[in-house]
Structure formats: structure tokens, C-alpha cells
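agent> step 3/5: call structure_predict on target 'DHA2 family efflux MFS transporter permease subunit' (Micromonospora parva).
agent> reason: downstream docking stage needs a structural representation; sequence fetched in step 2, passing through unchanged.
tool.input:
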Amino acid sequence: MTQQSIATSDKLDGAVLKVAGVVVLGAIMSILDVTVVSVALPTFQSEFDASYARVAWTMTAYTLALATVIPLSGWAADRFGTKRLYMVALALFTIGSGLCAMADTIGELIGYRVLQGLGGGMLMPLGMTIMTRAAGPHRIGRLMAVLGIPMLLGPIGGPILGGWLIDTASWHWIFLINLPIGLIALIYAQFALPKDAPEPSESFDFVGMLMLSPGLALFLYGVSSLPEVGTFAEAKVWAPMLVGGALVVAFVLYSFRPRHPLLDLRLFRNRSLTIASVTMFVFIIAFMGAGLLFPSYFLQVRGESTLAAGLLMAPQGIGAMITMPIAGTLADRVPIGRTVPFALGLIVIGFFGFTQVDPQTSYWLLGASLFVMGLGMGGTMMPIMTSALRTLQAQEVARGSTLVNILQQIGGSVGAAVMSVILTNELNGSRPIPGLVDESGKPVTEAGLAIASQQRPELLQQMPVDPSLIERGLDFAAKSFATTFWVAFALVVLTFIPAALLPRRRQPAQLDDPQGEQIKTPVVIH
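tool.output (status=ok):
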């Protein structure tokens, strides 16, 4: 075969690009829906009169649902066919979006977000399976470049789109916008995707699933309930934490028995996978948890509109867009033990700016901090996950990818819950205003009134208060955010410990196709 024919065969032809179009549409919906909701959390607080810890469940429930269906998707795709299952996932996500827009209470919204997450969690892994089958393993790198578009644009476009929709219409439109996209994607999928050829698949670990998913949900529910009741002694806190923790421990002990467990923890015998997974898990708890609070600071302490908050978050996405392709290239040439610590150093430098926030912190400083953090993030996530998978045997890759992706989702959920608990506890320490109570009969604090007045200035006309009280409240609120960022900062610094053990020499990759060409394994990123 000539060099010219090889080059031609490596190109993505029209048929493959047509399939890629369906997958990109699904990825855009799934990824945007994570970032678009981040700027809406303060809006949910005021709309549903709920605490931050409570509305943070709109994010936590979504990511937990994603983690639940990731291991299910591979088994179900073999059993029912990828096209059929992908269209079911699209329909679930679209229906969930419509129901979210119609939610009347925060509880309903959280429940509908679970339905959305069950669909969204299958879109990316199924999409990668469909594209890999359509193009062949030798073109995975080119396919990842196509899928990289929504992955890179999501962190930039999501907050801006969410802010614009909330400012110009209402919060309902951050969900309603998915309806036409989902409908187009369903029609497109019907005509573009190849027909299904379901095959018998390995048995699915339903017992493990019934232990892990409820266990995580119960444990995180207990943690998230702590700020509302203020003590571990309340049954609402300790009972779900105890039951959830017991279920997770039982799952870990049980998972070594089945031939095909839900999560193959035996893979942790691979030192490279273990170190990379621990590094990623600690990093995600800190970075993703605190990342949800960045727009909240702009909205609640600085009184910015949701669109302005989304625009202020853009430097982080731009930074990641610059370094992610560079990091992907370097990952094949330079051991990640030499590059990831440098990228983590950039994140630490950028993060430090947010530990110093007050009600007047310069936007230039915060924008520069976000940009530097974005540069570091782009050089951290993909190389770590590539390192986690590249030393596995070919038959272990699917299980390893599932394990890494679920750890990523769990880390994001834990981070969101922990950071919202810390922030809410800090804000609850603000001085109560004598004689002033909210609709539920709880005393209104100085920080609470100051935050509310930033979103609704008319409140100060309805209840004249001393301007110094608002200043004290905003100062206290800013310090509460700074304290929470200090915790996240410390966790990012701790990430250097497992990162120091990452391989500093080139490792031979185990993933080869029958012709001896290295296969790049796709990794799902939400």
C-alpha cells in the first residue's frame, strides 16, 4: 500500500462525519448542561427560597446520575444496540429538560435533573462507541479532535449562554433550549446512525449497582443536610450518612467476588492506574467543587448579572483551550510526571487569587487568576486520565475507562457537596439582625440581607437599614467565600503528593491493534 493511500484512509470521510455530527450534538447538550446550570444556582436560591446546600443538589444529583449509568451503558449497548440506546438517551435527556423547566419546587427540579443525568450520562460513552465503530481505532485521534469542540467550548459558552438566557428570559430557558436541539438530534440520529446489530453480552452486576448508587446518594444527602440543621446529632444527617457509608463499604467488599463487577477494583493492582486515579480524584474534589462557587461569588457578593458572571468566567475556558491540545501532544512524548506537577503549579498560583477575595477585589486580578487556572487545568485532566489507561492490557481498557470516569463523577459530586457545606456553614455564622425574620421564621443575618440586596436592590427601599450593616454583611460573605476557597486551595496543594509519584519515565503502552499500531483510548469528560 502506498503512503498516499494510507493518508487517504486515515481521513474522516463523509459517512463518518455524518455520524460524528449526531454525537457532537449530543455532547453539546450534555456538557453545556453541566456548565449552564452553574450560574443559575443563586437564581434557584431566590426562586425556590432554598439554601445554597439545597440548590447545589441540582448539580450533585445530575453528576451522580451520570456516574450511575456510565457502567450500564457498555452492557446495554451490546444487549439492545447502540443506535436504539443512543436515541433512548437523547429522548430521556430531552424529556428531562422539559420537565426541569416546569418544576415548581426545588425537590421537583432535583428529581428531574436525575432523569436528565440518566440520559446525559449515556450520551458520551455511547457516542464514543458509535464513532469508534464507524471510523475504526486508527482514527480515534482525529475523532477526539472533533469531539474536543464541545468539550472546549462548554466551559466558555455554558456560563455565558446560561447568564444570557436568565437575564433576557428566565431560568426556565436554560432547560427549554435543549428541546429543539434534542428533537433535531433524534431525527438526525434516526437517519444518520447505522442499523443496530445487538449481540449477547456479559452479565451485568445489578447487585453492585443497587449498593453503590444508593450508597453514594444517601451519604451525600446526609453531608448536604448538615448546614440546614447545624449538627451531626440530627437523624437527617447521621442516618443517611451511616446507611450510605455502609452500602459503599459493602460494595467495595463485594466487588471482588463477581467475574464482571460493576467497578473492577482489581485494576487498582496496577500502580500507574492507582496513582493517576488518586491524583485525579483529589484534584476534582477541590477544583470542581470550588469551581461551582466562582460564579456565585460574582453574583452574590459583587451583585453582577448572570450574563456578566458568565462572561467573567470565560478566561478559565480560554486558558484551558490553549493548553489542552498542547498537553495532548506532550502526553505522547513527555512522561506526565514531568508535566502535570507544572500544570498543578499554575492552578495553585491562579487559585491563590481567589483566597484573597473581598467585596472590591479587582476583576483584572480575578480574570488573570481564572486564566492561569484554565492553563493549568488544560494541562492536568487529559494527561492524568491518559496515564491511568495507557498501561492497561487491551481487554482491561473498557473496565479501566469506566472506573476512571465514575471516579471523576463521584469526585465532582463530593466536591460540590463539601464546598457547599463549608460555604453555608460560614455564611450561617453571620450576625442576625434583631427583629427581622424570613418567610420561614428564621432570623435574617447581615450576610443574608446583603446578598439578597445585591440580587434585589428594591429590598433596601422596602426595609430601610443602615448602609454600614450591608457593608458588614458583604464583607462577611466575601470572607466566607475566601475561607471556602482556602479549603479547596489546600486540597489542590495536597494533590502534589500523589502527583509526585506519577511516572517520570516513558512507559510502554499496552494498547495495540492487531497490526501493531497504538490505539488511543477515548475518555469521557463531563
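agent> step 4/5: record observation. The two ends are 40 Å apart (CA to CA).
agent> proceeding.
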